[in-house]
Amino acid sequence: MNGQSDARVALVTGGGKGVGAGVVKVLAERDVRCCINCNTNPAMAEQTRKAVEAAGGEAFVYRADITDAGQLQAMVDAVIDRWGRLDILVNNAAMQLNRFIDQYDYATLRRLWEINIGGYFHAARVCLPHLRKSPCGRIVNICSIHGKRPTGFDAGYAMTKGAIRMFTRELALELYADGITVNAVDLGGCRIEFKTGNAPISAFNPLDCHNPGLMAPRMVTPRDVGELVWFLCGPEASAITGDGIRVDKGLILV
């Protein structure tokens, strides 16, 4: 289509459901055109697209495996062909298995890292030439409070989130001269349909044992995350880069 417009364009990985869908809906409400990336749940991504368009927004769905740099490149090319620009990358697609260390094997751990770290790395690299052309280039990495404190379960997942925090800081320094801000959202418990990878929700969590009933009232929503992403992507947040901002209703404090 090669559409030209002053409206900004965002690519949201894992944007078809859960946190990603919440981000897409909030951005679209603010006239940001969105590419909704999905891989394993295209039907849910289509539902998100329909919701965006019903509300007057603009979006399209592109199915791509974020661990495959070639598929990511093809997706970004499709965004540019359609809208002629790319201003925002939201790295969100991830997998959480909720496994203890002796429940992991090397192949599973490697796959987790390929998605949770490799996907963020490849997406940033492929999007960078276009973000550098944007007057307000933004990268937001969806991270987790698992990257800030130990929780007693799923060391593999926590390792990836800790790595994302450092990746965010390094990239913020590297891209400062380009005027591109890079920030992380440190997410607490969030109400979503299900975890990619079908992680058991009943996995041991010290908070559940020591503070019965504490978790439920501190769950955030995908929209909560979307509102923070929107702020970080705006000109008002131009002085914020390399940071990690919690959205967890104070869960990390208890």
Report what the structure shows.
This protein has 254 residues and is of the alpha/beta class. 41% of the residues lie in helices and 15% in strands. The protein has seven helices and seven strands; from the N terminus they run βαβαβαβαβαβααβ. Helix 2 links the parallel strand 2 and strand 3. It is globular. It starts with 8 loop residues before the first strand and ends in a 7-residue tail after the last strand.
Radius of gyration from the alpha-carbon trace, in angstroms: 17 Å
CATH class: Alpha Beta
Structural class: alpha/beta
The sequence of SSEs as H and E is EHEHEHEHEHEHHE
Helix content: 40-55%
Give me the side-by-side strand order of the main sheet.
Answer: 3-2-1-4-5-6-7
Sheet-strand content, in percent, reads 5-15%
CATH architecture: 3-Layer(aba) Sandwich
Number of strands: 7
State the CATH topology: Rossmann fold
List low-pLDDT spans: 206-210
Largest sheet features: 7 strands, parallel
Roughly what is the average pLDDT, rounded to an integer? 88
What is the CATH superfamily label? Answer: NAD(P)-binding Rossmann-like Domain
Number of helices: 7
Q: In one word, what is the shape?
A: globular
Count the domains: 1
Layout of strands and helices, then pairs:
Elements: E1 9-12, H1 18-29, E2 33-38, H2 42-54, E3 59-63, H3 69-83, E4 88-91, H4 106-131, E5 138-144, H5 155-175, E6 181-187, H6 206-210, H7 222-232, E7 244-247
Parallel strand pairs: 1-2, 1-4, 2-3, 4-5, 5-6, 6-7
